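Q: I have 380 residues here and want to know how they pack in 3D. Can you give me a structure?
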Amino acid sequence: MEHALSIKQPWATLVVHGLKTIEVRRWSTRHRGRVLIHAGRIPDLRPETRAHLPRDLEECARLGGGIVGQAQLVECRVYKTPEAFARDRRLHLNDPSWFQPPAMYGFVFAGASPLPFRRCPGSLYFFEVADAPRPAASTRSGLLVSVRNAAEATAALEGGADLIDVKEPRHGALGRASDDVIAEVVRRVAGRRPVSAALGELAELRDAQTVAGLAFVKCGLANLASPKRWERQLLSLRQRIGNQPQPPEVVTVAYADWKRAGAPPWPDVAKFALRHPGGVLLLDTFDKTWRPRGKQRRPATLLDWLTLDEVRQLCQQCHAAGVRIALAGSLRVPQVLQLADARPTWFAVRGGVCESNKRDGEVHVLKVRDWAEVVRWQRR
């Protein structure tokens, strides 16, 4: 027997596709772990609710009266004031006026994925379901676009990006942008998509304070090859950020070219991520200038460092463990087509959506649109 939670459509669809990560209730829960998402028989027909639903998910949102997906329930947040409720608006998608005293509770979900529709009755609170299905390997992939300013964020939004990431490519693989730039991007996106930010390399991090409104932050592990050192520092970072008001999730970063970065081996970092269900793993490359022998015209991609089988196996392990995974590393469309059956949570790109395909160029809306079409085609 497994626990399920009934949610009205289109909210249920938004949850299982990772576009809504907090479901609000007037009651609390101590339950943690896998929860089946049940789409209620009666939908929410308000126009302001339907406005959150992307066109490509309209068909999914017509399903009702059965199980449509699953997710990991990782936290229950307490909102005692309208201000606290409003700060998480980008995650629960509810209008601030919907807050009702004395308190409301946010069920925080991670690792969500759709499941084959299975009709069954729902209930007001958590209810049990027998012989529950498990998520298939073919989870839906999204498009992550890295931007360096608010203007590029607008282009990424208009082009169809699912996740907006802020970084400064001139400062390295995970170069940190200024707090002013990050805050401006958060304001420009205005809750329409989750926003993440790069904080640089963990070994050089001095300020762990993050800008309000971020869904994710990430640090590289360059020059932290000692196992005890990098694990200790990464756990310490998670604790420091976790103590902040409305903290973002800390992404675990594995460098495929770990020897060039002086970082821990990527399989060790992946094992660390797999021990934390509900988390996020980014598989990236550190050296964006190195070119493979005989291929001087292009920088190395993820698949110059890892084999297809290695990436596919890692994605399968993440799916099974309830860990979301982003694939990056100077990817171009041919690599995305090769990796389509791995079904990562996100394909992450910057250079491929910039003018002249250079990561220090400017993000172009038409290039983002082309990439979004490729990723959307892979979802079918």
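Q: Anything worth noting?
A: The first strand starts at residue 2 and ends at 7. The domain at 142-378 is CATH 3.20.20.380 (TIM Barrel).
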